[in-house]
Amino acid sequence: MSTRNIRSGSPESLARFPAPQSPPPLGSRKSNYALVKSKRRIGKQRLIAIFLVIYLSCFVLFTAFKRGGIEAYDFEHAARLKNKRGVAPPIDMQMGLSQIESVMASLPPEGGNLLVFGLGNDSSFWHDVSGGVVSFIEGDFADSKWATEWSDQVLFKYPYLDCSMVVYSTSMENDYERFERGGEALWAKELDLTSQLPLHITTTKWDVIVVDAPRGNKGSNGPGRFQSIYTARILAGLGTTIVIDDYERDIENRFSKLILGKEPVKVEKRSGRRGIGDANWQAYFEM
């Protein structure tokens, strides 16, 4: 075909290159079909997106469960514990349910006096579950605001808790070998906190003493638990159960056996719970 025929708009050129057709008017059969088809395509895309969200959520929850995640809270186990004392452990409680059950089993069926080194969001649970005298001891470095600010937050939320503040003077980074070699004379001189405690704590016969403070995790530059472990021994009487939390750590493990002069009767392990705490061990010493 020649260029002349195309430019001149001859019938031959028009036949080969038809004029573009205008879209069908709104409301015609063709436009309605295109609209329905478009809506179906969008609907399919939404269904696929919803399916992917559900699939990914199930995958994340399953993975968390396998790794000891948020689903590690066993609601049936918690209900059994509630039946024993009338109070269910809160879902965000850092202790594992088996550990909680072991602490509860060490308390007398009726009442029971409980002393806890460490103030936390679970303190109200221990206050309610015991039925006897329940006291807490909190503290940190003398020049640290960390513990004061933390205790203020907890006591603002639970103003009815009995909490005594102490000053820890040790260093987990520098003092372990010194205290390990020092013996009873050095321990009595530097680790005894009883002079900082009120009379009702030093004179109460405690059924259970839980040592879960001060800070002793690696890299925290905390005081370590030399003083709380030693003071727990002083405050314990015949038949007292001393519970050492985070027993997998060096100070809690080796120093508690040195100070208490015995092996624990059992060690209760807790798997990690995402967003709540890493896996840990809890040792039970019968005095």
Automatic annotation (TrEMBL):
<dbReference type="Pfam" id="PF21729">
    <property type="entry name" value="IRX15_IRX15L_GXM"/>
</dbReference>
<dbReference type="InterPro" id="IPR006514">
    <property type="entry name" value="IRX15/GXM/AGM"/>
</dbReference>
<protein>
    <recommendedName>
        <fullName>Polysaccharide biosynthesis domain-containing protein</fullName>
    </recommendedName>
</protein>
<keyword id="KW-0812">Transmembrane</keyword>
<keyword id="KW-0472">Membrane</keyword>
<dbReference type="GO" id="GO:0016020">
    <property type="term" value="C:membrane"/>
</dbReference>
<dbReference type="GO" id="GO:0045492">
    <property type="term" value="P:xylan biosynthetic process"/>
</dbReference>
<keyword id="KW-1133">Transmembrane helix</keyword>
<feature type="compositionally biased region" description="Polar residues">
    <location>
        <begin position="1"/>
        <end position="11"/>
    </location>
</feature>
<dbReference type="GO" id="GO:0012505">
    <property type="term" value="C:endomembrane system"/>
</dbReference>
<feature type="region of interest" description="Disordered">
    <location>
        <begin position="1"/>
        <end position="30"/>
    </location>
</feature>
<feature type="transmembrane region" description="Helical">
    <location>
        <begin position="47"/>
        <end position="65"/>
    </location>
</feature>
